[in-house]
């Protein structure tokens, strides 16, 4: 899975929906600037973020959003919820993740939700067979959409990066920090930024 040891980064606890002030909100309220992460830069004018997001063509599955919200409230994913979200991200991992048992899913996702360290959070999810950083990012995103973006080849293209076959923990941490910085700088939510990044890449294909 391309996991490498990364420096510890403080993470917010994943708590029940709407109870946690997330990093973007906290920094904006305190007037703090995000440190710039080199190599992740918008490939389009920031003024277009909201318009691109409004043209977003890929609909979230309501059942997937509900699964993530339920997992956040409970403190872990059930196997059924886990498989639903993995299937939403990519069908290619279906044979691999199908062999994971209920206890394995609960143990890994509970550990991810409880830790205060971002590297440990993603690493806990990567312990699950068939789960790479992109799928792990989706599991975090739907459990806590205000705090986590989805790592996707289209989003990376819109930030001047190329997609890879595997992603390291350190790469995820840089991507996470870059997205939080951009959302904070431009006064949008991570989900709005997410949609804009995906849509810009999609429109470039036409």
Can you offer a commentary on this structure?
It is a single chain. Helices cover 55% and strands 0% of the residues. The protein has 206 residues and is mostly helical. It has one domain. The longest helix is centred in the last third of the chain and has 18 residues, at 169-186. Mean pLDDT is 85; it is low at 1-9, 16-22 and 24-35.
CA-CA gap between termini: 32 Å
Structural class: mainly alpha
Number of domains: 1
Cα radius of gyration in angstroms: 16 Å
Strand coverage percent: under 5%
| Helix count, DSSP H or I runs of 4 or more residues | 11
Query: Average pLDDT across residues?
Result: 85
Unreliable stretches covering 5 or more consecutive residues: 1-9, 16-22, 24-35
| Number of DSSP E strands | 0
Run of helices and strands:
HHHHHHHHHHH
Helix content: 40-55%
- Principal-axis shape equals globular
Q: How would you summarize what this structure contains?
A:
The protein is an all-alpha fold. Helix content is 55%, strand content 0%.
Descriptive key words:
mainly alpha, globular, 206 residues
């Amino acid at each position: 899975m391309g996991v490498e040891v990364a420096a510890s980064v403080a993470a917010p606890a994943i708590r029940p929906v709407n109870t946690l002030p997330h990093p973007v909100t906290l920094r904006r309220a305190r007037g703090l600037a995000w440190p710039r992460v080199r190599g992740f830069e918008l490939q389009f004018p920031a003024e277009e973020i909201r318009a691109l997001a409004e043209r977003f063509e890929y609909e979230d599955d309501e059942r997937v959003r509900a699964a993530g919200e339920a997992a956040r409230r409970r403190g872990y994913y059930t196997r059924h919820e886990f498989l639903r979200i993995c299937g939403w991200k990519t069908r290619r991992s279906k044979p691999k993740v199908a062999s994971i048992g209920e206890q394995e899913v609960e143990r890994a996702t509970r550990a991810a939700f409880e830790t205060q360290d971002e590297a440990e959070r993603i690493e806990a999810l990567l312990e699950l067979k068939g789960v790479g950083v992109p799928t792990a990012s989706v599991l975090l995103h739907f459990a806590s959409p205000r705090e986590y973006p989805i790592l996707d080849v289209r989003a990376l293209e819109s930030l001047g990066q190329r997609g890879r076959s595997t992603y390291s923990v350190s790469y995820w941490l840089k991507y996470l920090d870059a997205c939080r910085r951009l959302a904070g700088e431009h006064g949008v939510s991570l989900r709005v930024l997410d949609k804009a990044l995906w849509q810009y890449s999609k429109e470039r294909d036409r």
